[in-house]
């Protein structure tokens, strides 16, 4: 399979036509080999137009949703960011090409190690992966300009939001009443507000970011 051609086609068919006009994001996605971040048996699916589950609770968002979420995040060259729930490291690899430094956190130790190896194999020296609870974030590294949670959540992650700088932002997909919407939390002093940007296809909520199930008699 010609992965390079597949990446170009992905950007041309799934990213550009969906209002992601930032050339930096297009270039980063065209240069980042999604297949590297998938198990060997799934690599031929790396550029299909759908979400790809590659481990329990871990998936690559479809390129359209991922690109729109990155665009909503508005990553800036001087940003220090936290990539919560980095999985095998794909989102970290793309973001690292757009900002100054990425701190990535993954709860699975083996996956965190694999993510770091993937990033090193691509020569991305401005990203570091730590093992820990993504919901708890990285309080020793705060404050962050941006926090990126590349998946669906059901409840406001107040612990993470507290690690933003004043004026900082957090990009994620908020799922309520069976509908997923990509958007941005913004922090202004002690106030937090969420702005919706687009409807997202994912329905899989990240473990630990889901609401407790109500007990029904």
What report would you give on this structure?
The structure is a single chain. By secondary structure, the chain is of the alpha/beta class. It has a domain at 63-199: 3-Layer(aba) Sandwich (Rossmann fold). It is 26% helix and 30% strand. The chain is built from 6 helices and 9 strands. It has a 7-stranded mixed beta sheet with strand order 5-4-3-6-7-8-9, covered by helices on one side. β1 (52-55) and β2 (58-60) form a beta hairpin. α1 (3-15) runs antiparallel to α2 and α1 packs across α3 (63-73). The longest helix has 13 residues, at 3-15. The radius of gyration is 16 Å and the shape is globular. The mean pLDDT is 94.
Number of helices: 6
CATH architecture of the domain at 63-199: 3-Layer(aba) Sandwich
CATH topology of the domain at 63-199, by name, is Rossmann fold
Q: What portion of residues belong to β-strands?
A: 25-35%
Classify the secondary structure makeup into a structural class: alpha/beta
Main β-sheet description = 7 strands, mixed
Distance between the termini: 53 Å
Mean pLDDT: 94
Q: Indicate the radius of gyration in whole angstroms.
A: 16 Å
By DSSP, the count of extended strands is: 9
- Secondary-structure element sequence? HHEEHEHEHEEHEEE
Percent helix, as a range, is 25-40%
> By CATH's scheme, which homologous superfamily of the domain at 63-199 applies?
Vaccinia Virus protein VP39
**Poorly predicted ranges:** none
Estimate the global geometry from the Cα principal axes.
globular
Order of strands, widest sheet: 5-4-3-6-7-8-9
**What top-tier CATH class of the domain at 63-199 fits best?**
Alpha Beta
């Amino acid at each position: 399979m010609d992965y390079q051609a597949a990446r170009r086609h992905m950007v041309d068919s799934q990213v550009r036509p969906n209002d992601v006009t930032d050339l930096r994001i297009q270039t980063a996605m065209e240069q980042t080999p999604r297949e590297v971040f998938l198990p060997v048996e799934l690599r031929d699916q790396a550029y299909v137009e759908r979400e790809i589950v590659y481990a329990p609770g871990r998936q690559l968002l479809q390129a359209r949703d991922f690109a729109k979420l990155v665009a909503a995040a508005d990553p800036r060259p001087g940003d220090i960011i936290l990539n919560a729930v980095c999985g095998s490291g794909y989102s970290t690899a793309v973001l690292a090409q757009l900002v100054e430094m990425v701190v990535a956190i993954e709860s699975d130790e083996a996956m965190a190690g694999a993510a770091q190896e993937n990033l090193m194999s691509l020569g991305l020296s401005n990203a570091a992966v730590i093992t820990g609870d993504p919901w708890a974030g990285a309080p020793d590294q705060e404050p962050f300009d941006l926090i990126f949670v590349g998946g669906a959540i059901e409840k406001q992650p107040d612990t993470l939001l507290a690690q933003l700088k004043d004026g900082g932002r957090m990009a994620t997909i908020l799922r309520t009443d069976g509908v997923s919407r990509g958007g941005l939390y913004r922090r202004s002093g002690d106030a937090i507000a969420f702005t919706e940007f687009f409807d997202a296809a994912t329905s899989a909520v990240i473990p630990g970011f889901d609401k407790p199930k109500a007990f029904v008699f």
